[in-house]
Amino acid sequence: MKKTIQKIALSITFTFSLLNVIAQDRNVAWIHGLDGNANSWKHYNQIFDKERNLNSLRTTYNTDNGITYSTNKVIGSMNTRYKDNAKGANNPRNLGIGHSMGGLMLRDADRITANGTKKFGGYITVASPNYGAPIANSLLNGSVQNAAENACNKLTDGPLSQLIPVPFNFLSDLSTDVLCNIFIDNDLIQSFQGSPVTNKDLRVGSPTIDAINDYDTNLPRISIWAEENSPVHWRMLSSQMFGNDTDLVKIAKSVRAVYDGFYIYNKSKAVVSGVLGFFNPYIWGFTALYGYRATQWKKGRNWIDDSENIWSSLIKTTRREKQTYWALTSVFGGVWTGDNTIGSLGLSWKQHTRFISVNYPSDGLLPQYTQELQDIPIGNRYKVQGANHTEVRNMTTDGNGVDETKDVFDDIFDREDWFGTN
User: Fold this and answer.
1) By C-alpha distance, which of 124, 103, 23, 127 is closest to 409?
2) 0.90 exceeded by the pTM?
3) Is 10 part of any domain?
4) Are residues 116 and 43 in the same domain?
5) Res. 83 pLDDT band, cuts 50 70 90
């Protein structure tokens, strides 16, 4: 009996030791992006450390000094965190998971480390600007500033033309933080503007982005891209500002209703005063005044209606792409033989090239075409539906009772290849 108990105790000890070895051998670094910190990945880090027996790293990196500077900080944190762990920081089973700029930092770490000293054996990019962030280009060329000024002008024209107090201190709120400066005053856009070095690194066509994409890696890679539902801009900014993707949508609808209400009110007054002006010429003056006010409120309403398209132009969800196609083409010198065949008419199939506009979905900040790595198998590309750039790090905030990002991670961790954790 005593020997049996000892055997059971040894078996249990061995099992737990084996599990510990497995956990220590599967180091996972959760890397945040430009607008993040050590808490950015806390939700999924805690879930999967428990469910998958992972040995995780989360820390805060100063991302203001460019991609490669931040990359070296990631390498340093790996060396510190895992120096006493199994095979250490160079463990070929180490997995990196990077959100936004964090995905570029993982790819850059792969690029600048030699074989035998690599910190990651594979990585997952999540909503990362793999081919550059078009919003950075829009910031650098002044498009965002112009859009913000245009928004302020159109949204304040109506209230200013009214020259009467608007209910609920609406004019005061409008001219500060509700919608007027939303394109430029939110923290996410400010994180780009506040870091000129990183902003230049993240732009489409930057030397750093090109160097990362020119590097030919053989590491296993997965890209997760997020697609937000319309209106993508209000949802993305709402998640960043309020921690959910609905509050700002509701505010935008309420503001739109106010603008439309004042537009209809003034337009109606203009019509009525115009009719009455036939009987009392003095009232004609009011027709012009109410018509002017209606026009000013309409500008703000129309801007709200078109704001998603304006935002999409800043993040470049539409781009021109080359397309090849085949068409029947006349061949000069063709001889008519009288039998009405294609060959006798001098026609043949020829390949042609043209440019077309392609509209891509986005996470509210980055289009699909830059989030999704193109040089990996289709099976290594995953989509999180209904997620924006901020909430993809914690999809429980959208309030629908489903954690879509966790479902995607579970699918990845259940794989029977390098990414499997079972």
Assistant:
1) 124
2) no
3) no
4) yes
5) confident
